[in-house]
Amino acid sequence: MNEKIDALIGNIEKVIVGKREVIVKVVSAMLCGGHILIEDVPGVGKTQLVSALARSVNGKYNRIQLTPDIMPSDIVGFSMVDQHTHELVYKEGAAMCNFLLADEINRASPKSQSSLLEVMEEHQISIDGKTYRLPEPFMTLATQNPVETYGTYHLPEAQMDRFIMKISIGYPDPAQELEIVSHAEAGMSAARIDAVMDTADVMQLTEAAGKIYVADPVRQYIVNIVNATRNSPLIRLGVSPRGSIALVKAAKAFAFTLGREFVTPDDVRYLAKDCLAHRLILSPKGKSQFPTSEAALEAVLMTVPAPK
Hints:
Largest sheet: 5 strands, parallel
Helix content: 40-55%
Number of strands: 11
Number of helices: 13
Radius of gyration: 20 Å
Strand order of the largest sheet: 2-5-8-1-9
Strand content: 5-15%
Structural class: alpha/beta
């Protein structure tokens, strides 16, 4: 199993240079059936990362550039009358794939954003009384630009809660950027890499990741962290039980990618900000003391003792 994970990560690294930690988190999210929100500036490789992941597992990949005029039917599809049979025929939308890149999700209207809710939660599409199952695995990777917010629609908390992680790729260091430029000159891109497994392998790995052992003290540690967010004066809206479940799933998948058969408290702490910070709303006191939810959550984590 671990050979396949290493091959997958190494294949993506051919395109995404110097960001192994980010790649491992994305692979972990895939192996626990989660979705990811990538918040970063343009040009750091968000699209290439998603494309490389899809090509590496031979999955169907669709990208939709979200703008205010995008309709829900563009995402989930629609029914139309067949001129020959005079029956309703379903025409697939962008979501009918294994990997959906929802680019600049905060530029879509709330109506279009909400059309993703059933898709992300239920892995199905309901139109005109009929239900269409999405192929497995299915993963939504949405992006948003944190800098340019003019003409955007803030994602509601209910939709933020659907993402198992919110991550950032970040700028490369000078040595990494030199390698990226060299790759670009040589024409290396996600379109030129080969698959190292298929979607059936992904489902097999997902099943194995779900069997990773979580000891009771580690599970209690997660619950204690979540409860601390609900009782902190820094936070107005704490993490819901969905956040607890997300952190358990992500920690199991993360441990699996590292070749371990059990989750450690360090795994939980390492992933806590990625899995929980975007589910918080800071109080006025929290906003005055900390610039971001991640920083406030770090302060809360310091108050929760880890099991030995």
